[in-house]
Design a protein that fits this description.
heterodimer; A: mainly alpha; globular; B: mainly alpha; 14 helices
Amino acid sequence: MRRANNKAWLAVAPVVLVVAFTAIAPLMTVVNYSVQDIFDVQTRLFVGLDWYRETLRDPRFLDALARQLGFSALVLALELPLGIWIARCMPLQGRMTVVFLIILAVPLLIPWNVVGVIWQIFARPDIGLLGAAVTALGLSYNYTSSAFDAWVTLVLMDLWHWTSLVALLCFAGFAAIPPAYYQAAELDGASRWQVFRHVELPHLKSVLTIAVLLRLMDSLMIYTEPFVLTGGGPGASTTFLSQYLTSMAVGQFDLGPAAAFSVLYFLLILLLCWLFHTTVMKRGDEAA
Amino acid sequence: MSAPNGKAHWSLYLYCGFLLVPLYWLVSMAGKPNRDILGGLELVPSNPTLANFAEIVTNPAWYGAFINSLTYVCLNAALSIAVALPAAYAFSRYRFLGDKQLFFWLLTNRMAPPAVFLLPFFQLYSAVGLFDTPLAVALAHCLFTVPLAVWILEGFVSAVPKELDEMAAIDGHSFAFFFFRIFIPVIRGGIGVTLFFCFMFSWVELLIARTLTASEAKPIVVAMTRTVSASGLDWGVLAAAGVLTILPGLAVVWFVRRHLVKGFAMGRV
């Protein structure tokens, strides 16, 4: 049992100060902008929720939102099963385990724009191995001109980049299952699928929750990799929310609409994560 | 059916191949003159050269950017651990007013898209005179590294039995002595894993680093987006810079390899 002690606030104070400076102050600024029409430093006009209404009616925002949700759903649907499978294939101990762990961790430690560069020079039809190989097979492939090819390349790049995170988390989950559970399942004559469904999956629940949450929020924030690889194109076919927001905020300097967009964007991620988290926790309580 | 053991499945080798082939392509690009890169496809460089790497280590614009990046990543990691460790200890050992709410609120900051913070960050850091310094990027990256550090360290602190704290008190050690001389050595593995994650998220970030720097503190990831020379894109030098940005990550993962799995198992939401 933890002791009650309000002096512990002193130990938490530095964190609160840092986060206040890096998160609360900027966020308040954004909220402040989102309800004003700003001409210059002196001239500003309170406009209430107008920017929010305008953003929600902006067809380019809605398109970017639809693409964003589609992309996130697609990469989650592919990365979770693949990550679990990779983790299941890993030997639990031995020299090779460390080698595999390091190989898996490598994509996570590469700067995101370098990931974009790697895939750029890997997938280009003229100088890239992948691009040249696909073209040699007789398929027309060019991610800078075909929207479909751009999407395939982006999804493949995201799998390359982030499946390792799911796999490493799941590997930690597998490593924590006591062998006695497997022995008991063997005595009961459980099939491979039953072992997975009733022994392994329940033990993976907490790591999988983290994996889904991290992938969900990070895929919803994706910016750098498509920025380098496709620049949001061809056309606007790979322009996701962050890309559109950045072009609005930095490119056109539309403070009010960009701020309203920002608030909606942040709320969307919070809402999705909260929905997922409460659903998982509720299910867990009923099962227990 | 038994626990996974000894042998690795063939599909694992296949997947590792999928991870390594694009990396190999990057390395082979870095070892070729531009003429060969654009001249045609070759699996092994026919004229291997280190000229692209030489360009980076001799050009101050390149290696200066490297030093800038390493500076803010180290500053950020030190800052994150320094503020997160006492907080993690407090969250783990004590109940206090609003502790649960505060813990979850910290995590919600991890969910804020960096793009949302671009405008205010630029103005905030310009206002306090930190714009275009490594410290500005280090502080801004605290947005996501500090919540993460608190989260991970809290797991490690909770894994240390409370009896350790009580024993030290009975032995007559002061709290400061206990914390720095007994407690920190005990959870050094956890601190290592936390450093790994802080490094990982600060080193790889582009958007905030680009917004908060101009010329003085330009980081390597930004320098890489501007490798357009007179003759077009300099693929060889770009690839060489890419290879060099992977090396610090490899070094870090090598140092924490024993703790990596435990770090990923921090598993409590």
